[in-house]
Amino acid sequence: MRELFFRPRTGGVRALVRVIAKLCAPAILNVLTALTALTVPIALVVLVVPAAGCTFVVPDSPGVTVLSWNIENLFDAIDQGTEYPEFTSGGGWTERDYQRRKQRIAEAVHALRPRPDILVFIEIENEEVLDALMDRYIVDINAPYRAFTKGPGAAIGIGIASRYPLVDVRTHLARSGEFPPLRPVLEAHLDVAGERLAIFANHWKSKRGGAPATEPLRRASARLLAARLEELRRSDPDLNLLVVGDFNERPREFELTGRSYPTALMPAEDVQYFADALRSGEQDELPSWVTACWLKNPDFLLLAPEAESARKHEEWFSGPVLVNLWDSSDTPGSFYFINRWERIDGIFAGASLFESPGLVFGSFLVPCPRDGCDAQGRPLSWEDDSRGVSDHLPLLLTLELHDE
Q: How far is 156 from 203, CA to CA, in rounded Å?
């Protein structure tokens, strides 16, 4: 497959027609010529040229849309020995169940606006399930570039499908003491019309067993991720960066737990206060776990409410400070549990995505998937309601392409 990324300027569509005339079958030229009559600007055109001909794709918006969604246990109907018991033939799981699930997910994705260009799915069984979902069900989104990972012997993993090429993909496996390996972090670098975008997809340990008891496991995932982000920042301080997924932890977890123990997501303002107190010799006023070693080897991600604050705090820390996009949203959460909204799914952005030129933050949305919410806007699990899609809501981020 060969791709041409074209960002039109003055007379751009007509120029594109001339380029494609040399690449495509003549039959496609009628469609392309019709585009020159459009009065609305086309900010980005993606041409996919397989060996047999051409597929012409025009995105819904003049930028890039990223979807991050925990789709709640998508399993095929083949017993491989790693499934949860209810998703085996012995547990009653059938091919019909599998097909129905893919159909409901596809209907929900098709209804999203703007349509996603990069799709991150959490809780998907394997690479074959990802391919089946994208190639046979989500057919109106051309996302041929794929990546998948899951831990050794794990039931579920993380998949990425992208319209844009993946130029580097890595898996990072976290460990914590005697526990089995934690769920891996999937790192993918994409070429988005000449701009490099790094996405880190996560699915951290749940709070099953108690929030304080399981916090060290989420901190272990954060430690691995923080070290990798610091490494990347040293080589490219302005890298376009997104950290996405299901963190099983709220961005304000530290505050909401009364600041009684360290959390995997930490407000940069609080950590800055701790650092200043240590430097001034006022450590007696601090919790016992606040030490110079804790600050030097962080097992947390630093979050700020907006880019200006993130840049200010980055002057003091070796790793990046991420912008918490929930702070720009009025949506109460993405997950509803025991009569309470939770913001445990997240998209955290590097500050460079708020600075021109290149990829620049556009919007952050938490939409209700098609028929997938109740009258109060709460997500409907497919296990509890025939209309349901997932017990999590999807997160949508749009990025705009700015030349200057």
A: 10
Strand bridging mode 195-203 / 2-6? unpaired
Q: Which two tokens stand for residue 309?
A: 């604050």
pLDDT in tens, 61-120: 668 999 999 999 999 999 999 999 999 999 999 999 999 999 999 999 999 999 999 999
3-state secondary structure of 60: coil
Contacts of 395 (CB under 8 A, 6+ apart): 67, 68, 69, 244, 334, 345, 346, 347, 364, 365, 366
Close Cβ partners of 360 (under 8 Å, ≥ 6 residues apart) = 353, 354, 399, 400, 401, 402
- Tell the burial category of 92 from Cβ atoms under 10 Å away from its Cβ (0-12, 13-18, 19+): exposed
Q: Which CATH architecture has domain 65-402?
A: 4-Layer Sandwich (3.60)
User: Residue 173 and residue 226: Cα distance in Å, rounded?
Assistant: 13
**Inter-axis angle of helices 127-136 and 95-111, to 10 degrees?**
60
With 0-12 CB in 10 A as exposed, 13-18 as middle and 19+ as buried, what is 101?
buried
Is the model's pTM score more than 0.85?
yes
Q: DSSP character for 381?
A: P
CA distance 295 to 141: 43
Residues facing residue 68 across a β-bridge: 120, 395
- Amino acid, single-letter form, for residue 283: Q
Which has the closest alpha carbon to 298: 205, 233, 226?
226
Rounded Cα distance, 231 and 312, in Å: 19
Measured between alpha carbons, how far is 220 from 183 in angstroms, rounded to an integer? 11
CA distance 227 to 232: 9
| Ranges of CATH 3.60.10.10 domains, the chain | 65-402
Q: Write the secondary structure of 241-303 as one string of H (helix), E (strand) and C (coil).
A: EEEEEECCCCCCHHHHCCCCCCCCEEEHHHHHHHHHHHHCCCHHHCCCCCCHHHHHCCCCEEE
Given a cut of 90, whether residue 4 has pLDDT beyond it is no
- The number of beta carbons lying within 10 Å of the beta carbon of residue 68 is 29
Cis peptide before 357 (omega within 30 of 0): yes
